[in-house]
Amino acid sequence: MSQCMEIDGSVLEGGGQILRNSISLSAILGIPVRVMNIRAKRSKPGLAAQHLKGIQLVAEMCRAKLKGASIGSTDVEFIPGKLRGGHYVADTQTAGSISLLLQVALPCALMADGPVTLDLKGGTNADMAPQIDYMCVVLRPLLLKFKVDFSWKIHRRGYFPRGGGHVTFDIKPVRQLHGVDMTDQGVVKCVQGWSFVAGRLPIKMAYQMSDGARSELTNLPNVNIQTYKEDQNMAPDNCNGIVLACETSTGCVLGGDALGRRGAEPYALGRCAAADVTAALRCGACLDKHAQDQMIIYMLLSEGRSAVKCGEVTLHTRTAIYIAELIAKVKFTIKDEGEANIIECVGLGLINKNVPL
Length: 357
Known about the structure:
It is built from 8 helices and 16 strands.
């Protein structure tokens, strides 16, 4: 087998993000990798279903040679081939996060030799991962700044513990990503929100989450939170949650979300989601704490300088930067701006020669 770059999966955040970013960059840059000590800092180390399906999905997209890909494995070798367009299916067969499947596959699809359709199945609204609505209403507008786009269709919602969600994404490859400057927050234009319940849960819980969010957003203009119960055909199982998206005059989108769990009071969930938004606004950030780490791979692939302003740099973001510098040899800097930080790099300017000028 080809000589693999060895990556220690126990460093920094020590979770699934190291694996996802390593596999994405391996496929895009054509660099074989061996990821060891996978998820070493988790209570159940090794590959869970969503991690396994994520790397198998990317392996199929680039016809990779894959070794060690099984549930519980802590050591995986990935030797990539050429990224190809096509129709790909990944099913965690659990409530494993569809958003995390998209996270590993989307950058790869952008560098494929043709359009990519992803049929992803699992959890649409899962704990310890962005809700699918966040990916579509917060992350997508931010990626548009890099000239990255995707369309989506939610066929069915899937919640813990059964999953069963199904979302289709259509992605066109790009010739080159554009560097971004997201350092001017601007002023708030509006806040959109979606507060929902599903299954047997009463609609009053959605109103309580909405009320909690509004109590934190009283000083912001044009707050519009839709409150509803999911159709039973779309979402037969029990769940409740809220997603918020705050848009500013400079095109920044700051998000916050919360998901119901046993013992969690709905009003407090709404306040928690809104607090993420107001915290980002207070420090002048252009990204919320859940978006900052997801920007790193797009910054390193882009042409020219990219700079983004965020609040405290999270451990997830520092981990993403570590993997970016290790594999892609792109240097990131973090500049202290009081309560905020500016993350900056000069990207690779990678060109997808399959896409004409």
